[in-house]
Amino acid sequence: MKKAMVIGASGGMGYALVMELVSRGVEVVAFARGKERLGELFGREEKVTILAGDASEKKQVSLAADGVDVIFHAMNLPYEEWKEKLLPVTQNIIEAAEENGAKLAVVDNIYAYGKSGGSRLKECMEKKPHTKKGKLRKEMGEMIQQANIPTLICHFPDFYGPNATNTYIHFTLEQLLKKKKGGFVGPNHIEREFIFTKDGARVMVELALREDAYGHNWNIPALSTITGRDFEKIIKEQLGKDKQLYYITKPMFALFALVAGKGMREAVEMQYINAEPTILSGEKLTRFLGEWNSTPYEKGIEETIGYMKNQI
Asked: What GO annotations for molecular function exist for this entry (predicted)?
């Protein structure tokens, strides 16, 4: 891979992918809507070409993808735009890859799996989404698999990390940096997993470099599970013992959503992920790549906090 394109480069995983690719000597086209934000993130990176554009316009995507070997689709649309835009944007990206003879690597979530039933989610499991968004993600995955170019899909749990602003962990940390209490979405005792974006990007790029990784779905789990209580302990060690969490259960989330914006109301149906263990199995990935190093939560949270403080 000599040249890649990252769509959604200004987002949390998009940013991590660009920086991981650059660290491997790959030229990168960083594509997103906001030219100013792209400049802030990548203006000093010699191997990054900044292109502001709209992925809902196929011509813009196709022109930007000229000469690239792999397109990384890391675009994260707001929930309220999924019904109208998710599938058309995906189709635009697929067609742009086909027109340019590029491979396609897609950042996906776990919604298409539906409820776990207490088992760790494996790629071989039948996807049985019970939410509107899960059904859309399943349809999106099917579109990608039917493309006429090599494709791979990476399923990730919730993110956290530098520049990962549209995440639950960012919401919590942002509050804690301003005051003594911060809201943690979910009960305090449920096992959860959050993947550090740098770890996710490293694994995804490694997969994209391997010909035999294409044609597959890949579950990319976090280092380990963590509870709200575990997270609070780390926070107290890093930000001070006076810091506390309050826990936002599904009923509380639904109540807040009544007076919040449409995006939060759209997120209510996804709260099953925060209310029961919904954990990815990494067995297939380990068989393929072998053991890989992941960042401990303590170190990842410390780095994320440092990044956030520098942005204030």
From this structure: aldehyde dehydrogenase (NAD+) activity
- The token pair that represents 106 in the structure block: 């897609």
Contact 69, 105 (CB under 8 A): no
Please provide the distance, in angstroms rounded to a whole number, between the alpha carbons at the two ends of the chain: 36
User: What is the total residue count of the chain?
Assistant: 312
Q: What is the mean pLDDT of the chain?
A: 95
Alpha helices by DSSP H, 43-131: 58-64, 87-100
Distances (CA, A) of 287 to 46, 152, 291: 36, 17, 8
Residue 264: predicted pLDDT: 84
CA 71 – CA 74 distance, rounded (Å)? 9
Query: How far is it, in rounded angstroms, from Cα 70 to Cα 248?
Result: 40
- What is the value of pTM for the model shown? 0.96
pLDDT at 312: 73
Residue from 195, 201, 179, 175 nearest 308 by CA? 175
Q: What is the pLDDT of residues 221-254, one digit of tens each?
A: 999 999 999 999 999 999 999 999 999 988 888 8
Task: List Cβ neighbours of 162 (8 Å cut-off, separation of 6 or more).
Answer: 12, 15, 16, 197, 198, 303, 304, 307
Which residue is listed with tokens 């979910």?
Answer: 186
